Amino acid sequence: MVPERVYAAMSKPVVGHLDAYFFQVAEDVRNLLQTVFGTENAFTMAISGTGSAGMEAAVANFVEPGAKFAVLANGFFCDRISEMGKRYGGDLVRLEKPWGEAFSDQEAADFIRAQKPQVVGFVQAETSTGVFQASKAICDAAHEAGALVIADTVTSLGGMPVQIDANGIDIAYSCSQKGLSCPPGLAPITLSPRALEWLRARTTPRRTWYLDLKLLDEYYDGAHRYHHTAPISMFYGLREALVAIAEEGVENRWARHCRNHLALVAGFEAMGLRMLVAEGVRLWTLNTPRVPEGVDDLKVRKRLLAEHDIEVLGGFGPLAGKVFRVGLMGPLSSEDNVTMLLDAFEACLRAEGYQPPASGREAAQAFYAAQSQ
Ligand SMILES: Cc1ncc(COP(=O)(O)O)c(C=O)c1O
């Protein structure tokens, strides 16, 4: 959901891609992104393109041909980053986990110590499953092994603490259209000083031109040398979205996402829906209740859209037909939306023959009431 003020900012007159005003906007975006990323990294910018462009920039710049690339694989986007690693010539090794589970610190560290890779990749917020992957142990083990760490923060940035510096993440990318509440089109990215030093010292040719971070750095920073024509209106929109986050306060925003997620889960559980993901490793931005036995999830979702104007996604891959995927991010993450969704969900489940044992709305309201005491 995109706030009105972001649409308004995007409708402002466009300046040239080498205009001093544009570079001022890009500089504001950098400063504001540092706060949501939780980093002091000087190399923090927004790349033209969606989240996958951020992913590809990370892989293309840091996975050299022949380099061992170790991926912690527990969902769809772990497969995408693996595929990119292979295409850029990396020697891919994977530690697998069933979709819906997180890696323990020990499992991740043992794998990294045994493999001794040059680069480690993992997805902090796996949108296909609703799992949050803790980052610190992965980064500690990777640094011990001399590896750089790439983290996918597409579904965490702006909705949950990403904490780049506290975790020691070297390279992180995200998107504009999820927790930042902007239209799709820009991919925030940040590099630690260590990653930047490595990039500057890289001697093997980089196979990407459009996503070459050294060239992009010369465009946005330093010499402001023309590289490509930046999507100016998207930068206006992203800056406004980030200003709105700064006004709310990033920690208040995380707390809001956490509170509404917990209320929604209380509602689902009261209705007899079990969560796919264990407590403690659930995303606050994307919730995955299991589809009750005997219910066709597609029918429920179609009904939700047709009768209540609410779009909920389904599971795919090994989770097809097994979970709902309910996004709760940005302005959507509110008490009113949680109770409205639970009412609509209950009505649609009943219409499809499932009888919830208790009211989801009442459970969510009891949760909110307990919080405010
Ligand atoms: C975890 C994760 N990584 C990467 C992507 C790719 O982002 P995009 O679709 O913006 O290219 C997505 C998209 O949903 C995602 O959820």
CATH architecture of the largest domain: 3-Layer(aba) Sandwich
Mind telling me the C-alpha Rg? 21 Å
End-to-end span in angstroms? 30 Å
- The whole-number mean of residue pLDDT values reads 97
Strand order of the largest sheet: 1-9-8-7-4-2-3
Strand content: 5-15%
Number of helices: 14
Task: Return the CATH class of the largest domain.
Answer: Alpha Beta
Return residue spans where pLDDT drops below 50 for at least 5 consecutive residues.
none
Strand tally, please?
12
Describe this structure in words.
The chain has 373 residues and is an alpha/beta fold. The protein has two domains: 4-248, Type I PLP-dependent aspartate aminotransferase-like (Major domain) (Aspartate Aminotransferase, domain 2); 250-371, Aspartate Aminotransferase, domain 1 (Alpha-Beta Complex), CATH 3.90.1150. 45% of the residues lie in helices and 13% in strands. It contains 14 helices and twelve strands. The protein has helices at 4-10, 20-37, 51-62, 76-87, 105-115, 136-144, 164-167, 193-201, 213-220, 232-248, 250-270, 297-308, 335-351, 360-371, and strands at 43-48, 68-73, 91-96, 119-123, 125-126, 131-132, 148-152, 171-173, 186-191, 286-287, 313-314, 324-327. It has a seven-stranded mixed beta sheet with strand order 1-9-8-7-4-2-3, sandwiched between helices. Strands 10-12-11 form a three-stranded antiparallel beta sheet, with helices on one face. Strands 5-6 form a two-stranded antiparallel ribbon. β7 (148-152), α7 and β8 (171-173) form a beta-alpha-beta unit. α12 crosses α13 (335-351). The longest helix is centred in the last third of the chain and has 21 residues, at 250-270. The chain is globular and about 65 Å long. The relative contact order is 0.14. The model has no long low-confidence stretch (mean pLDDT 97). The structure holds pyridoxal-5'-phosphate. Pyridoxal-5'-phosphate (PLP) binds at residues 50-52, 55, 77, 123, 125, 127, 152, 154-155, 175, 184.
